[in-house]
Amino acid sequence: MKLDDKTRSPGASTSARQEMSQDNWDQRLGFLMHDVSRLRRKVFDEVMKPEGITRSQWWVMAHLSRHDGMSQSDLADRLDIGRAALGGLIDRLEAQELVRRGASEHDRRAKLVFLTPAGCDMIERMRIKSDHMSEAILEGLSTAQRHQLADMLDRVKRNLLAFKDFPAG
After folding, report:
1. DSSP secondary structure of 137-153
2. What are the pLDDT digits (tens) for 32-46?
């Protein structure tokens, strides 16, 4: 008899129902995390659409707002994207005059990436919109709950970053 059959029958054992419930919890949590992330990205894209910037471009600019003047190579590593893909994003941001490339004083081969004044203005507009969006999606959560949620998600992120091997079988 399969587990599904055991849990559906009127006389199903408590342990079988608990095991199935645990399996469903793990599955629901993964789906919930995925759906929340997907929906947040979708809403964010809609909020930022009037600014004429894509999520990928925003991600580059947001990172530069915290680490302006990084080398293109280091930025690609930090964002975990290929150097060629990042080069294309930076080309488009340069065309919009939101970033500029510059030479490194220490390594003439390295290209550094900087936000322009227009890029800094865009970051400020994006922060305001992002703050409004965050308020809307966290509506109904107290300040304490928001901090707790952030702490829990931070713990999950650290666990994922520390994850090495998934046991086979």
Report:
1. HTTT--HHHHHHHHHHH
2. 999 999 999 999 999
67: exposed, middle or buried (C-beta count within 10 Å: 0-12, 13-18, 19+)?
exposed
Residue 10 lies in a domain: no
Do 126 and 51 meet the contact criterion of CB atoms below 8 Å apart? Answer: yes
pLDDT digits (tens, 9 = 90+) for 89-126: 999 999 999 999 998 788 777 889 999 999 999 999 99
* 4 occurs within a structural domain: no
CB-based burial label for 68 (10 Å; 0-12, 13-18, 19+): middle
pTM (two decimals)? 0.70
Return the residue matching tokens 């930025």.
75
Q: Would you state the torsion angle of the CA atoms of residues 96, 61, 127, 145, taken in this order, to the nearest 10 degrees?
A: 150
**Structural domain containing residue 117:** 41-160
Does 5 map to a domain? Answer: no
d(CA 169, CA 3): 18
The CATH number of residue 74's host domain is: 1.10.10.10
3-class state of residue 6 by DSSP:
helix
Enter the tokens of residue 74.
Answer: 């280091």
Tally the domains of the chain. 1
